[in-house]
Amino acid sequence: MHKMVADRTQSAYDRWSGIYDHDPNPQTALEQATVVELVSPSREDRILDAACGTGRYCGLFRERGAEVVGLDFSEGMLGIARNRFPDIQFHQADLRLPLPFPDGAFSKVNCAQALKHLSDVRPALREFARVVIPGGTVTFSVTHPDMTWQDYELSFSPSFILSAESDIHPHRFCDYFEAVTMAGLSLAEFRQVPVDERIKNHLTVESFEKVKGRYQIAVFHLAKPDGKQQRPGAS
Questions:
Q1: Cβ atoms of 182 and 130 closer than 8 Å
Q2: Which of 142, 148, 167, 170 maximizes the CB count within 10 A of its CB?
Q3: How many domains, the chain?
Q4: Residue 132's beta-bridge partner residues?
């Protein structure tokens, strides 16, 4: 097992873990249906949920019959996840380091809202590509790089402000696409998720009317080549 790099972001998630499942989260509320649809978990799948937090997506994927393995760097988050899902395997690991799995260990990888904490997303994308089988997929969600927060006002006072407690790196589209290409993956589908009725109650009435329709989430669904080369002239 590789040594973890402890930092303020890891400590922030440890502190947040106790209330994480009870805090209203506009990001998750907006993206969840799209992420699950693109990952498309099935009984044939073994899925790595990288940066699994308290296991939200692990549970959703397992409900659809997939075998799931969760990974996170926060022991606080993992403690909650293990209590919620004692039959799911969870690992503590850092996405900045090589993952503790052999090549091709999974049919799919999911990573939700975590790459913003990495100063360089390329190593993580390379590792996702390594541990997924040829023909497998990698799905990751991020805050939309073009999202502007002007007039975006929550209807509640959050008990934990992640942007104030952790390191967040505002990556551009070119950063993600460069990392995807360098990892040897290809873009199979791309979704932009706008502010809509799903988070209407998260925002003040005035704010929702101003920001609805604004893209808040970007979801990348990537494919790893299956290694099969088409014969010349084949259709």
A1: no
A2: 142
A3: 1
A4: 106
Q: Is residue 178 part of a domain?
A: yes
Sign of dihedral through CA atoms 130, 133, 134, 136? negative
pLDDT tens digits along 35-62 = 999 999 999 999 999 999 999 999 999 9
Examine the pLDDT at 148 and tell me if it is beyond 60: yes
Name the nearest CA neighbour of 221 among 135, 141, 114, 128.
141
Phi, psi of 10 (to 5 degrees): -60, -45
- For tokens 């502190």, name the residue: 15
- Quick: pLDDT tens for 185-205: 999 999 999 999 999 999 999
Q: Which parts of the chain are beta strand (E)?
A: 46-50, 67-72, 89-92, 106-112, 132-143, 186-194, 215-223
Strand-pair partners of 49: 70, 110
The CATH number assigned to the domain holding 212 equals 3.40.50.150
Q: Which helix (H) or strand (E) holds 13?
A: helix 8-20
Mean pLDDT, the chain, integer: 90
In the chain the first and final C-alpha atoms are separated, in Å, by 46
Angle at 105 between CA 101 and CA 106, to 5 degrees: 120
What is the identity of the amino acid at 89?
A: Q
Question: Side chain identity at 97, as an amino acid letter?
Answer: L
Please check whether residue 234 lies inside any domain of the structure. no
Segment 211-231 mean pLDDT: 88
